Amino acid sequence: MANYDVVVIGSGPAGYVAAIRAAQLGLKTVCIEKEKSKQGKIGLGGTCLNVGCIPSKALLDSTYKYHEAKHDFDLHGISAKGVSIDVPTMIARKDDIVKQLTTGIGGLFKANGVDTLEGTGKVLAGKKVEVTKADGSVEILEAENIVIAAGSLPVAIPPAPVDQKVIVDSTGALDFSETPKRLGVIGAGVIGLELGSVWGRLGSEVVLLEALDDFLPAMDKQIAKETQKILKKQGLDIRMGARVTGTEVKGKEVTVTYSDAEGEKQQVFDKLIVCVGRRPQSQSLLAADSGVSLDERGFIFVNDYCETAVPGVYAIGDVVRGPMLAHKGSEEGVMVAERIVGQKAAMNYETIPGVIYTHPEVAAVGKTEEQLKADGVAYNIGVFPFAASGRAMAANETAGMVKMIAHAETDRILGCHIVGPSAADLVQQIVIAMEFGSSAEDIALTVFGHPTLSEAVHEAALAVSGHAIHIPNKKKRK
Helix or strand or coil: residue 444? Predict the structure, then answer.
């Protein structure tokens, strides 16, 4: 029986980071992964690197370059007639990026002394891990510490069974061999909007069917409303309150039945993407006597430091509470590794940014205006539109705004919400500021380079106190 200081189950952004940090701290570490890559090797990197964050961004960037060349180059005086895109080449580039990054994780494991083991891990009683390999053989590992980072899976819905041919999940949507003429997307959340954007830019007629009545309900309403307006202008047909009740595949097309406020309706698509959320991959992960418990939704119970009820057994990433975000899982991995060796590491869950990689991007950190209202917190708001940014104008990227929210009494920044160019990078400035407990005035007093997109963040901070320079202020203040 092999013995390790740390056994990590899962090699996604949570698991591989936990394994590397544990090894850096001098712990004998092994990482178990059950998935295989397209090349038939161990599929390190989890959902994010293989079929999630990275491949989807590769396609988003490729398709936006095509869209810009076809529709916007003439604004700059650039003639680019007859622009076309080769979808198989685009998909091959995406696969090459995935291969480079997953191979890179293998290199990092080797450099840091992390062992890898291909198979399915299961937590047993007494801090043991059973590993079932592809050939059916079983190996038992004994561990001082176990870190469960098994990740998540797409949620399936009975009315739209996935066949990965006509009806696909988010993974299948990354591998279309050609652009579908009519594309249906069930779910207008983060994944649905990103995948809808990818194929919409290439010419698909995209219809998103969302069961909820409110668009992006977890986001600040003002930003969500602006985002919906921008995306509809781009051609995405977003239908809210549309609940799918059935599908029928005939040949190479699918008829979708759904109901909305007007009654029952049908729509025919060439491809249908089901992306209604993800669920923790916790089935068959725990032996009945492991001592580790799940909640009613399949998430593993942990405390603020990702410790389960069993001393020395931790769980991180998508299998535990909190947003299913790669960066959240990674930082939990670092925290757990450091706590194993006795360090006092902790995570600030109040400053985890969230991003939607449409174009323009949508990004947020902290509280929304609606949350603060519900909590009875007094606040001030500063909003600055990119339409007033010289740098945004020069780049032909004037859609969207920056919205900053600060406490009315202390001026401490409570949240920042952005839809606009480079929103994912701009919001990170405020993530750092919030980590240091900054006020809106701190940002307002900081010198920002000109001309930059970051000036929109600066102006939003100035607007909190009515001191914005490049837009009229709503109320005059001294």
Answer: helix
Q: What is the pLDDT of residue 478?
A: 44
Alpha carbon 12 to its chain's center: 13
Res 39: pLDDT: 87
Overall size of the chain counted in residues: 478
* 0.90 surpassed by pTM: yes
- Is the dihedral angle over the CA atoms 252, 257, 261, 262 positive or is it negative? positive
Residues 6+ apart with CB under 8 A from 440: 380, 382, 404, 406, 411, 413, 461, 464, 465
Residue type, 466: G
What pLDDT, in 10s, does the model give residues 213-250?
999 999 999 999 999 999 999 999 999 999 999 999 99
Spatial CA neighbour of 10 closest among 454, 332, 436, 402? 332
Cβ atoms of 280 and 152 closer than 8 Å? yes
Distances 199 to 64, 179, 246, 421 between C-alpha atoms, Å: 10, 7, 23, 20
What confidence tens digit (pLDDT) does each residue in 287-338 have?
A: 999 999 999 999 999 999 999 999 999 999 999 999 999 999 999 999 999 9
Q: Write the DSSP assignment of 138-165 as a string of letters.
A: EEEEEEEEEEE---EEEPP-TTS---SS
Cα separation, 365 vs 462, in Å, equals: 18
Give dist(CA 338, CA 340) in Å, integer.
5
Q: Which among 185, 151, 134, 109 has a CA at the least distance from the CA of 10?
A: 151
Pairwise CA distance, residues 177 & 189, whole Å? 24
Interval 190-211: pLDDT, tens: 999 999 999 999 999 999 999 9
**204-222 burial: b if 16+ Cβ within 10 Å, else e:** bbbbbbbbeeebbeebbeb
Annotated active-site residue in 76, 359, 450, 458: 450
Name the average pLDDT for the chain. 97
Is the distance from CB of 227 to CB of 362 less than 8 angstroms?
Answer: yes
Residue 363 has pLDDT above 50, yes or no: yes
Distance CA 276, CA 167 (A): 13
> 70: which 2 tokens?
């076809």
Amino acid at 325: L
- pLDDT band for 476, please (50, 70, 90 cuts): low
* 424 HSE (CA, 13 A, CB side): 10
Q: Determine whether 76 is an active site residue.
A: no
Residue 122: name the closest of 281, 271, 254 by CA: 281
CA pair distance 275, 268, nearest whole angstrom: 18
Nearest-angstrom CA–CA distance, 141 and 353: 36
